[in-house]
C-alpha cells in the first residue's frame, strides 16, 4: 500500500471504531505521520477534558498507520502499547505526531507525541506492531 493522505483517510474512514473520532491526516512522509482530532463531545469526558481511552485509541492508530510507510506493508496489528499522560487535554485541535523508530521485516516500533491546541505536550505513547507484508 502506498502511504499518502488520501489512502490513510480512506483506511481511517473504513474502520468502524476510528471513524467516530473524526480523525484527519495532517501530514504524511516516510516514517512520520501527523493526525488531527477536534475536541468534539464524542471524545470528551467529565471535567471537560479529552477521554484517556480516546487518546490511547488514536495513539494506537497513529503508531500503527505510520508502519504503512515501509514498502510492502499491507496491514498491521498492535503487539504492545504504553501511554503516559502528562497533563489533561482541554484545547483542540489535538495533534498526534507519530514517528517510526524502527520498521523491521515483521515488527515495527513507533513513538507518538500528543499535543493540545496550544502545542503543549500532553501525552506520549510507545508501541510495537506486527507487520503483514505483500506476498
What's the total number of strands?
Answer: 8
Report the uncertain regions. Answer: none
Please describe the biggest sheet, giving its number of strands, its sense, and whether it closes into a barrel.
Answer: 6 strands, antiparallel
Structural Rg? 14 Å
On the 0 to 100 scale, the average pLDDT is: 94
How many domains in all? Answer: 1
- Which shape, going by the Cα principal axes? globular
Could you tell me the strand content as a percent range? over 45%
Distance between the termini: 12 Å
- Using the 3D structure, state the CATH architecture: Roll
What does this entry look like structurally?
- The protein has helices at 5-14, 52-65; strands at 23-29, 32-37, 44-45, 49-50, 73-85, 94-103, 107-115, 121-133.
- The protein is of the alpha+beta class and 135 residues long.
- A 6-stranded antiparallel β-sheet has the order 1-2-6-7-8-5. Strands 3-4 form a two-stranded antiparallel ribbon.
- The mean pLDDT is 94.
Topology:
Elements: H1 5-14, E1 23-29, E2 32-37, E3 44-45, E4 49-50, H2 52-65, E5 73-85, E6 94-103, E7 107-115, E8 121-133
Antiparallel strand pairs: 1-2, 2-6, 3-4, 5-8, 6-7, 7-8
Summarize the structure.
This protein is about 20% helix and about 45% strand. The protein has about 140 residues and is of the alpha+beta class. The strands form 2 sheets. It has a 6-stranded antiparallel beta sheet.
Amino acid at each position: 500500500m502506498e502511504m499518502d493522505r488520501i489512502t490513510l483517510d480512506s483506511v481511517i474512514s473504513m474502520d468502524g471504531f476510528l471513524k467516530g473520532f473524526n480523525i484527519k491526516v495532517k501530514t504524511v512522509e516516510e516514517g512520520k505521520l501527523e493526525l488531527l482530532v477536534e475536541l468534539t463531545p464524542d471524545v470528551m469526558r467529565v471535567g471537560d477534558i479529552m477521554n484517556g481511552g480516546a487518546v490511547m485509541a488514536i495513539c494506537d492508530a497513529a503508531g500503527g498507520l505510520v508502519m504503512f510507510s515501509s514498502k510492502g506493508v499491507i496491514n498491521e496489528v498492535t503487539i504492545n502499547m504504553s501511554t503516559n499522560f502528562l497533563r489533561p487535554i482541554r484545547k483542540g485541535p489535538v495533534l498526534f505526531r507519530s514517528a517510526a523508530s524502527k520498521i523491521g521485516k515483521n515488527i515495527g516500533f513507533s513513538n507518538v507525541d500528543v499535543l493540545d491546541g496550544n502545542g503543549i505536550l500532553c501525552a506520549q505513547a510507545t508501541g510495537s506492531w506486527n507487520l503483514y507484508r505483500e506476498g
